[in-house]
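Table S7 (text form). Paired inputs.
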Amino acid sequence: MVPLYMAFLVGGLLCMIGQVVMDVTKPNITPGHILVGYITSGAILSGLGLYQPLVNWGGAGATVPLSGFGHLLVQGTLKAVEQRGLLGAFSGGVEAAAAGITSAIVFGYVVAVIFNPRVKE
């Protein structure tokens, strides 16, 4: 089990890097660029076998941020390809992330029903 301070350190560093990049490159790099960049970099690092050591070292600090989502997609795809061949490449990532995606949709819907959304003026 990873100590809590390691998860906090790794997650904080990942967030800090994104914030520094946005601050230094303002207004060229937006939060949307950071989100896509983190998912893509997590997927690439996972495919190269470099993200799993970070997960082992930082625990939830490496799996909860968006780079961890990219890692999850790649690991699910690789596992499904081993089991089902080429068809696994199309379904493995979505199957691996299904619980998280479903939770985001359900909780987003519940919050939208409970609270009254307003447009900022």
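Next pair, protein 2 of 2.
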Amino acid sequence: MGLSTHVLDTMHGCPASGMAVQLYATDDSAIKLIKVFTLNADGRNPDGLLLTADELKIGTYRLVFDVASYFKARGAALPEPNFLNQVSLDFGVANPKQHYHVPLLVSPWSYSTYRGS
């Protein structure tokens, strides 16, 4: 079914439109950049799935969210250095026939994630 993500800005109570995100494959101690994208107005990848069902494989992955740049662009008063700069989420895919949704709820000072549906 594929891989997707969704980011909600809990400071402003809205999707994190404009946040830069990177997707990596992290198998076998090697890190390979798969995709770079900017979240749309709904806080999602504008192209839909990050990986289709055919592209998603058993293994480990990393999503990197550029949190500090996003909040600076929104005009948030952040200390230097920022408490959160980039949020990296490492996760595993055991069954690529299932859908893997990796949401992020984020503010300049905290974040939460879970395996969504």
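The first strand starts at residue 2 and ends at 9.
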